[in-house]
């Protein structure tokens, strides 16, 4: 969702500062939430600024470019390793412990799509029946 326009922010704040009603009335008048009016007034009081706050960008990846190069080499050395095994190899080489989901994201960044998958038995599912077993003979 995009932030409210600067024009709307100014009008809401001016209405509040000129005491044209309660925060609730101002929110209804401008068709915004009460929490938006509260946050806007608080931000104005604390910083004098009404610009939208920057959106968060999430966490930085724990593996830098050098680490990605090392991971690429590990994958070349162990092409059939599972993600868990790659985590262990990576920790041995770099000293950085990665979770399986983090390793998966790194793996996808390297565009390496041939990680060894678990067999059906290890996934807890029975193996698929072969065509000859599924056909009935009369």
UniProtKB/TrEMBL annotation:
Pfam families: HTH_28
Composition-biased stretches (Basic residues): 111-127
Chain positions covered by the region annotation Disordered: 111-138
Biased composition (Basic and acidic residues): 128-138
Domain Insertion element IS150 protein InsJ-like helix-turn-helix: 9-57
InterPro entries recorded: Homeodomain-like_sf, InsJ-like_HTH, WH-like_DNA-bd_sf
SUPFAM superfamilies per UniProt: Homeodomain-like
Protein name in the entry: Transposase
Organism this protein belongs to: bacterium (Candidatus Blackallbacteria) CG17_big_fil_post_rev_8_21_14_2_50_48_46
């Amino acid at each position: 969702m995009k932030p409210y326009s600067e024009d709307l922010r100014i009008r809401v704040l001016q209405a509040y500062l000129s005491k044209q009603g309660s925060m609730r009335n101002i929110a209804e008048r401008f068709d915004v939430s009460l929490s938006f009016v509260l946050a806007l007034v608080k931000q104005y009081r604390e910083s004098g600024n009404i610009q939208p706050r920057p959106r968060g960008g999430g966490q930085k990846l724990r593996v830098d470019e050098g680490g990605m190069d090392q991971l690429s080499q590990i994958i070349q050395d162990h092409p059939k390793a599972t993600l868990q095994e790659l985590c262990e190899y990576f920790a041995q080489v770099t000293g950085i412990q990665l979770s399986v989901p983090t390793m998966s994201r790194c793996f996808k960044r390297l565009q390496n799509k041939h990680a060894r998958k678990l067999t059906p038995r290890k996934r807890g599912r029975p193996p698929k029946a072969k065509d000859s077993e599924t056909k009935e003979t009369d």
